[in-house]
Amino acid sequence: GDSALMLFLLVVGAFTLLGLQTDGLRMGMLFVGTLLALIFAPMLAGVLGKFINLPEHPLWWELGAGKIWAFIILMTAVLAGTQPLHRKLQHHIKHKLETNRLAEWDRVNSIAGITLGGILGVLYLMLLAGIITPLGYAATQLRPSETAAANEPLGYPLAARLYRDFRTLGLDKSARLFDPATDRYYDATDIAGLLYHNLRGPNMQTTRTRLVAYPALVEAAHTQHLYNILHL
Fold first, then answer.
1. Segments making up each domain of the chain, as ranges
2. Mind listing the UniProt keywords for this protein, alphabetically (predicted)?
């Protein structure tokens, strides 16, 4: 679980420092904005997909690319909108409270910033875990041979390792709450994993023969197109 713990320290630590550098008022706005973005992102995913050049392959949509982009756009709008609001509220509080009350407010505001920063860090850690989970699941199911693993991109084994660490630490169930992928994505990944591991190496010919002998595929097995796909 080392990689997951490092990710925890990095994300939660970064948001806690952000809360320390800013204040509770700004972090509170960010917290509310994040919750609203999480609620409305699934609703706006299809609408925003028409205006953004998202990949047309259905796998990306099953993976939740539309929801992720919608969340990013909504959070950008939240950050832009809270800037003038925060400045206006700060100005109002500064001129409304007396000197001693203002000092008390500054202390409370500072403590609230650190606290909300830690809470937001945990929330965004779960969001990251939710995005990593479907990628790590696919990387685990489609685990390559040792020879092929040496040439694969760095993100592939990293996603698989983080996914395994999440499971070890028991974070996988919590991460699924923020997982943008659909159930069909996981079904397709399971099937792809079975085909990947059985249609290679010494089991390849046996699996192909069994596949075309399956009762539901007997008629289809007589089509040349299927034979071409299976390389029989």
1. 2-181
2. Membrane, Transmembrane, Transmembrane helix
Residue 200 CB contacts under 8 Å (≥ 6 apart), including other chains:
none
CA atoms lying within 13 Å on the CB side of residue 188: 12
SS3 62: helix
User: How would you label 13-37 residue by residue, b for 16+ Cβ within 10 Å and e otherwise?
Assistant: eebbebbeebbbbbbbbbbebbeeb
d(CA 208, CA 66): 36
Tokens of 174: 């919590």
Rounded to 5°, the CA angle 184-34-132 comes to 40
Q: What distance in Å separates the CA atoms of residue 122 and residue 202, rounded to the nearest whole number?
A: 46
Q: Considering the entire predicted model, what is its pTM? A: 0.78
Q: Return the half-sphere exposure (C-beta side, CA atoms, 13 A cut-off) of residue 222.
A: 4
Cβ atoms of 185 and 63 closer than 8 Å: yes
Dump pLDDT digits (tens) for 129-140.
999 998 888 888
pLDDT band, residue 157 (cuts 50/70/90): confident
Residue carrying the six token digits 């920063």: 117
Structure tokens of 83?
A: 């800037």
Picking from 9, 3, 27, the residue whose alpha carbon sits closest to that of residue 122 is 9
Which secondary-structure segment (H or E) carries 223? none
Output the CA–CA distances (angstroms, integers) from residue 161 to 27, 129, 132, 133, in the order listed. 32, 12, 10, 10
- CA-to-CA distance for 106 and 108, rounded, in angstroms? 6
Using the predicted structure, report yes or no on whether residue 232 has a pLDDT greater than 60: no
